[in-house]
Amino acid sequence: MKMAGGPASVNIKVILILVAALIGGGTLYYTQSLVIRLQKKERDAVQLYAKGLEYIANTNTPESDFTFLLDNLIKPIDFPVILTDSKNRVNLSGKSDVRNIKYDTTLSEKQLTNLFDAKIKDMDAINKPIVVTYADTIVLTKIHFGDSELVNQLKFYPVIQIMLAALFIIVGYIGFSNIKKSEQGNIWVGMAKETAHQLGTPISSLMGWLEILLLNYKDPDKVLDIVDEISNDVEKLNKITYRFSKIGSKPELKKCLVYNEIEGIAGYFRRRLPQSGKDVQILIEGDKNIYAQINSRLFEWVLENLIKNALDAMDKDQGSITFSIREHKSTVEIEVADTGKGIDIKRRKDIFRPGYSTKRRGWGLGLSLSKRIIEDYHKGKIFVKNSIPDEGTVFKIVLNKD
Question: How is the chain split into domains, by residue range?
Answer without folding.
Answer: 81-145, 252-400
